[in-house]
Each structure stands twice: as C-alpha cells, then as structure tokens.
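Think of the structure tokens as a kind of shorthand, similar to the way a musician reads notation: each symbol stands for something richer, in this case the local conformation of the backbone. In the example below we present two proteins back to back. Begin with the first one, reading the sequence and then the tokens, and try to describe in your own words what changes along the chain.
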Amino acid sequence: MTMTGLNRPNAGSRSGIHIATIAYDGRIWSVHLEFYDDPKRPEVYLARLKFDVANPTDYEEAPRTAVIIIEETFEDAISKARDFDDHQLEGLLRSALTI
C-alpha cells in the first residue's frame, strides 16, 4: 500500500466507508466505498462501490463495481460517492450483480 497522505485509507479494510443503504429486489443493501491503491497513480484516490446484503445466503459474495471514482483528495472521493442517488446506486448494483 502506498502512503501519500495522512488521510489515505487502508485499501485492505474489511468493510470500507458506509455511503448509503438501499432496497433492491426485496433485499436491503449497504453501500460501502472501498479504496484501491495503484502504485502507478499514488497521487489520486481510486475507489469502487461494494454492496453488502443484509441477509446473505451461503457462499454469496458482495458484488463490487469496477473502480469508478478517481479524485485528487480522500474527501472528494467520499463526496463523489455520496452524490449518487438511490436510483443510480440501484443501477450500479444491478450491473455488479450481472458481472
């Protein structure tokens, strides 16, 4: 992991930063922001969304988007993720479930 700033999150953190809670397809999903370290781009904050379902079945893995947030600061990355509305988050979840 690269450390370029005091606020750089741990890319290996278990759950990420909670962004929202949404309902989709009869289930409740917590949306978390997970940061990704790229040694080739230590000056930016790269992140993806992880969706944790409230009642997972056995062997069900949390779907994730690709890296979709690229910002110059930690705070900007969080703000960008929190700017997604429920409809957009549902679309991203639907897309992540089909991967």
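Once you have a description of the first chain, move to the second and do the same.
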Amino acid sequence: MGDRKRLRYGMVGGGIGAFIGAVHRKAIALEETADLVAGCFSSRKEKNQETGDFYGIAADRLYASYEEMARAESTREDGIDFVSIVTPNATHYEVAKAFLEAGIHVACEKPLCFTVEQGEELERIAKEKHLMFAVTYTYTGYAMVKLARELVAAGEIGNIVNINAEYLQDWLIDEIGGGNQTTTKMSVWRTDPAKSGISNCVGDIGTHIEDTVAYITGLHPKKVAAVLDNYGMDLDLNANILVEYENGVHGVYSCSQVCAGHLNGLVIRIFGSEGSLEWVQEEPDYLKVTKKGHPDQIYHRGTGYITGMAAERNHIPSGHPEGLTFAFANIYHGFMADVLECVNGHAPEKAGDYPSVSDGVSGVRFIHAVVNSGKNGSGWTEV
C-alpha cells in the first residue's frame, strides 16, 4: 500500500454555537486533507449529541468524555491521527496530556495551560513520544506576518532597536466596576480564574503579541515590568508592559479589552536601524515597510513581488481579502503536513512553520512573569 493522503481527526470542545471550534473546523476543511470522524464536543449530553449529529459522527465515535475518547481512538485501527482541543483554558493541560499519552498528535488552543510546569510536562511527553504538537497562536498564520519575518531575517530593516505592539479591544468595557457581574456570554468564563487561570487579558490577547513578535523577530522577552488593571473584576482587563529582550533591545506591549472603539486591534511595529515594519491585523493583507530616507512602501498580499512562505501560503488572488480562517488554515497546513509525514513513517526532523508546544510554554512563562510583575510594584521580573 502507498502512503496515506488524508488524515482523520477528532475534536474536544467546540459544540454547535461555539465560536472558536467552528473556526478550527472551517480552517481544517480549507486544507482538504483531514476528515472529522470523532468528538467529545460538550460536557452537556444534548449539546454533544446535537453537534455529533450535525457533523455526521458515528454513534460509537461520539464520546461522553475526552478520557474515553483518547482511550478508544488509540486502540482503533481507523483511529484519529490528531485531536483539536478547543475547550476553555482550564482543561487544556489535562486533555492534551490524555491524548499525548494515548499516542495521538495534538493541536491545542492558547494559552497552552495554567502553569509552566504543566507546559514543560506536555513538551516532554510530546518529545518522548515523537508527537507533533501545535498551539494555535493565530496571527503567525497570516501571509504578511510571514513576509515580515522573512524581511527581518534578510536584514531589510537592519538591526532591531525597538518594538512597539498593541492589542486593543472593547468587548469587556461593561465589566468595569462590575463587581464580577459578567455582561457577555463569553466573559462568563474569560473573567473567571477557575476557567481562565491567573490572567484574562494578558492570557487571552497579550500572549498573541508575545508570540507574533517572537515569530517575526526571533526575540523572546528576558524580563518584563507590568501594570495590570482589573477594574473591580477578579482578573485583568487591561495591561501595559515594558519588555527587555534577550539581546538587550526594549519594547512596549499594550493589551486591553476596555478600549472603546477598538474591535480586534492587534498592531505590530518593528523598528530597525535601517527602517521599520508595521502590520495591522484588521488590514491583514498589507504590510507597511519604511526604509530610512525613503517613502513608505505598502506590500500587498498575493501580488507577484511577494515571495517565500508568504507566497506559498496565499489562498486567493490579491484584492480578495483573506482573514482569520485562512490564518488558522495556514497553521493547520504545516501541522497536518507533519502529522501526515509521521503517519506515513517519515517523521520530520523538526516541526514545520507553525507555533509549537515550545511556543506554548513560552507564552505561559510570559503570562506568569507579567502577572508577578504587576503584583510586585511593576518591578522587572524574569520570564
């Protein structure tokens, strides 16, 4: 028999009506190389059954618990090749660990887990069992973010001297002073420490800044000094963070969910000795490049002068906007290609172009350092 061409996957979480689960399924479908064949979509029996019926999941592959799913799928000849974990933060660690121990590749939502120790354990298990593990930090999947990475690596803006990034939203503005009286469906768990962990805003969107900057520049925070604002809630809704990187360069991160008029305002600005780059998530098909002493240049996704990974992961012609689902698809493209190699007995020597479990661990370290700095008078705190 020849090599397999398609994969089988299962999902934990993501019942009908869940936002992020639907995004993952659509992104995987865009790649057209994996079929959804199993799931434990909800802890609520009715919701789980409804979702299974909608996606045509066989009765014996619709599971009441993720533990049962991991055990059963690992013993089937036609068992799943990977699992997509789209549950709230609190369960990421235990679900991922169960599937890793069952020998199943994992793609997991961020943040990876609650503690650094948990993340390091997942990283160790994945390495020992030679399993692929993707953490879906969405924005590294965008084509123009990939172009930014390649331009930085090529020295187009010289040596990096400063980094400025923000991620501003307003969807939790009604929580200010609310005394933990949540006002939106999603905020019921986002602002609950039992479900979100030690951070809401930094854990939810601040880690996207950290990972996207690291992807573009290769720079990771060495230490941080942070101010976090809870506005009467148990967890942070706003954070301002000074960053020092491993090479001594400094940066500023701002993340907030209470900035009126801002919907999903991730902006990454990289400043170098010879120029700068700026990428705005709400206009993701464009990358602004400024060379010292020259006019601004605007690179457009999908055009003939775009090369490298940004060209390879271009889905549709320029002028037809690509967005969130395409970015997720690009992450799954690399991950599923590696899983398929493993399934066919050709395990890759290193992971492809997608956020790995190591990136997930870095995100957890960043969250803890920021929160600890905020608790200790905003003093510099090692990451």
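Compare your description with these statements about the second chain. The first strand starts at residue 7 and ends at 12.
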